[in-house]
Amino acid sequence: MADEEEPFRAHNWKQLTPQQLRNLPAVQRGKYLAYEEPPKDVLDAQEATLKRIRETYKQKKMATKGKEPIDLEREKQEILIGQLKAAEARNRLKAMKSKYHHYRAEDVAHLITTQPTALASVKLECLLPAKEEDMNLKDPLNRLKRRRVERILDDVNSYA
């Protein structure tokens, strides 16, 4: 008997008749009924509820198992679509920039050719280059060549 001990189960020590139970105040009746064995219809309803909960849990579990690979594939596809859209946007932007530079070069060339004098057109061409050139700020001379150039520029006799 020591091996097969049942867990403690609270119960009412005092047994009340249905008439005594009806005469109790509502709070005491609720406390008394909390420790009583529920009726058969309540037990059946509890079992049916637990069964529905288990079935719902199983269905959700099965649904999530089936959706995981589909969701991963969908995410990969969405990432790929996003990358393609970004590439298309970059290409559109590049095309718009090249079109802008082309039209700007045409406008500047037209302004230069419509100047009244050659001197005015040369001045305008210096101020408004037809193409924007990338400025190369890197020094083309190394240290040795730079020293030689500076010596030549500093030598007074070299200008004569």
Question: How is this structure best described in words?
Answer:
The chain is mainly α. 69% of the residues lie in helices and 0% in strands. It contains 5 helices and no strands. The chain has helices at residues 18-23, 26-34, 40-113, 118-127, 143-154. Helix 3 packs antiparallel against helix 4. The longest helix has 74 residues, at 40-113.
Task: Offer a quick outline of the entry.
The protein has 160 residues and is an all-alpha fold. Helices cover 69% and strands 0% of the residues.
Distance between the termini: 128 Å
Poorly predicted runs: none
Give the overall shape. rod-shaped
What amount of the residues lies in strands?
under 5%
- The helix tally amounts to 5
Blueprint (SSEs and pairs):
Blueprint: H1 18-23, H2 26-34, H3 40-113, H4 118-127, H5 143-154
Task: List descriptors.
rod-shaped; 5 helices; mainly alpha; 160 residues; 0% strand
